[in-house]
Write a structure and sequence with these properties.
Layout (H helix, E strand, L loop, with lengths): L7 H14 L3 H15 L8 E2 L2 E2 L3 H5 L2 H19 L8 H13 L6 H17 L5 H28 L1
Antiparallel strand pairs: 1-2
Helix pairs in contact: 1-7, 2-4, 2-6, 5-7, 6-7
Length: 160
């Protein structure tokens, strides 16, 4: 994962904007996943806990197990922000995370909806501070994370 893809200005924009989001990760994560289920309702069945299928996004978003998943997702984003200068240090972790997502039935294509949801959440949180430059910086960071995670799919295909 090339940290050279993000300029020092982009890294600063990401850190500054994330500081506002990180004050309440769970609340902003709920916004992200609410948007995700609006964009791609077919993802809802992928989330099952104790063999329980959720009948609605609202039911899923209020379950303690799913709230824990939201916290984990937000912590992965936090780790990417923390390691902006050395994103390659997260490469193996993100590749393994990709493998786990593939195992539960997530398709690589679903990550475009996740990316749109991330940008939506950032825009809602940041308001007018969500400038085109901030959007571009986050789009690049998210692209690098997805690229690393998708290697998990590639590695799994090679090993099958």
């Amino acid at each position: 994962m090339e940290s050279g893809r993000l300029s020092s200005t982009q890294q600063a924009l990401i850190r500054e904007s994330w500081q506002k989001v990180s004050s309440n990760l769970l609340q902003h994560g709920i916004v992200l996943f609410t948007r995700l289920f609006d964009l791609d309702p077919d993802l809802l069945p992928l989330f099952q806990y104790n063999c329980k299928q959720f009948s609605s996004p609202q039911e899923c978003l209020s379950s303690p197990e799913f709230l824990d998943h939201i916290r984990k997702v937000m912590l992965v984003i936090d780790a990417a922000v923390t390691h902006l200068e050395n994103l390659s240090s997260l490469e193996e972790y993100l590749s393994n995370l990709g493998k786990k997502h593939q195992t539960v039935g997530v398709k690589v294509d679903s990550f475009s909806a996740v990316g749109e949801s991330l940008l939506f959440m950032l825009e809602k949180c940041l308001g007018t501070a969500f400038s085109p430059d901030v959007r571009e910086a986050w789009t690049r960071l998210y692209g690098a994370v997805v690229k690393a995670m998708s290697r998990g799919w590639d590695a799994r295909k090679e090993g099958e």
